[in-house]
Amino acid sequence: MKSATFPSLRVEAELREAAESVLQEGESLSGFIESSVRETIDRRRNRAEFIARGLAARQDFARTGVSYSADEVHAELKGRLEAARKRILG
Asked: Taxonomically, which superkingdom (predicted)?
């Protein structure tokens, strides 16, 4: 795949210094920026998917009138977790 570049970005000196101050050993500023962009993309995609699932659930409730309490949902998740633990741990 052909590589591409981001446009140059002018920032205040304090922001660049702050970014440089948190670099891990062997990490470049370019690597830090790339990682930050990737994480932000993932976070925004996850947020959009979460909102879409919520809107779909609301539409499903409006259509069916069926809903579940938080206690019911927690009990279901707890059951799934326990079953997964038994499957993994034996």
From this structure: Bacteria
Cα 81 from Cα 71, distance rounded (Å): 15
pLDDT digits (tens, 9 = 90+) for 25-49: 999 999 999 999 999 999 999 999 9
CA distances in angstroms from 67 to 27, 41, 47, listed in the order given: 48, 32, 22
Could you tell me if residue 79 is inside a domain?
Answer: yes
Number of domains in the chain: 1
Assessment of whether the complete model's pTM goes beyond 0.85: no
